[in-house]
Amino acid sequence: xxxxxxxxxxxxxxxxxxxxxxxxxxxxxxxxxxxxxxxxxxxxxxxxxxxxxxxxxxxxxxxxxxxxxxxxxxxxx
Length: 77
Fold this sequence. Notes:
Distance between the termini: 27 Å
Mean pLDDT: 78
Number of helices: 5
Number of strands: 0
Structural class: mainly alpha
Shape: flat
Largest sheet: none
Strand content: under 5%
Low-confidence stretches: 72-77
Oligomer: single chain
């Protein structure tokens, strides 16, 4: 599928993934070190994981059932 079609079909996903890309570039620039290729390339994957599959509550971020999937994601990355 072409990028323009994907962008038109899923505008909210596109915005969220781009926010991750921009934050990644800011973090690498602020640290004056690191490589941004993998986080930029995996922004779409991270967006789908957090939106569709992982159970993370922003209302209760330190609740055990909320924090466990987040820890697993960091471990695997």
